[in-house]
Structure of ABC transporter domain-containing protein:
Amino acid sequence: MGVEIDIRGLTKSFGRQVIWRDVTLTLPAGEISVLLGPSGTGKSVLLKTLVGLLRPDAGSIVIEGQDICRLKERDLYEVRKLFGVLFQDGALFGSMNLYDNVAFPLREHTRKSESEIRAVVREKMDLVGLVGAEDKLPGELSGGMRKRAGLARALVLDPKIILFDEPDSGLDPVRTAFLNQLIVDLNQRIGATILIVTHDINTARTVPDNIGLLYHRHLAMFGPREMLLSSEESVVRQFLNAQRVGPIGMSEEKDADELAAERDTELPPLPPIPLQMMPSDGVPRSRQRPPGQWCAENGIVPPAGSFGGSDVGADPAAAL
């Protein structure tokens, strides 16, 4: 099962350039969270900070009672075994076939015999649908297959936390949909805490339990999926609905003149909140909330047509 990650007051700079400051959020154990934000806002930097590859200037990251920002390298090495990471391009070793790529963490971090390693590798490759491709080199694979191979490698140590750095990068919409379904099924099967950095709005709207948005060197909002998808906050609304009107510009934030020119522009209505993606077997994840529950509990009327046009979309009280 996954573990909770408690982040408090996290600040990171490179020289005089502040990446983000005072980032505070809790990634609930066993849930899927998505982190959004304009390009260049430090989403990947946050992932590297979570695994201890970068040290923050201030703040804490507490996992299983340990603040990894203050651990010695030896202790940090042990905590990293809780993590599995899928990098943007899979980060596979080009000279190794898929079997050896997936087996690498087991050979590096465990004392398992080759027969034990073979059993684990086959299990994980079966999980991501790559049985039969063990002898292929990364250069012989499609982008989607490389992503799945990278995911199999991230899973071999049975991590409690899985980080995805733009898993949809370079994939077409169909393969992105397959990968999203794989993530949801994986969460149901092993209960890991999952954080996905993505720019894909459909992924953000349908996959996670929680959504966060980094903007202008701070965390603009983080909370349950329905909270952000029904939000009237300008930066959240602009990003999630892919609008040009709002505080985000080509260079992250617009200047005062641009914002003044847009002041009287009428924003389009929020789109309906879609149903959350279900596991393939149709059984809800253990932490999955009923559609409309958050809106009902907080007295929010979601956009018309939300949740597949059910009564919940029209009357939040129907969710209770």
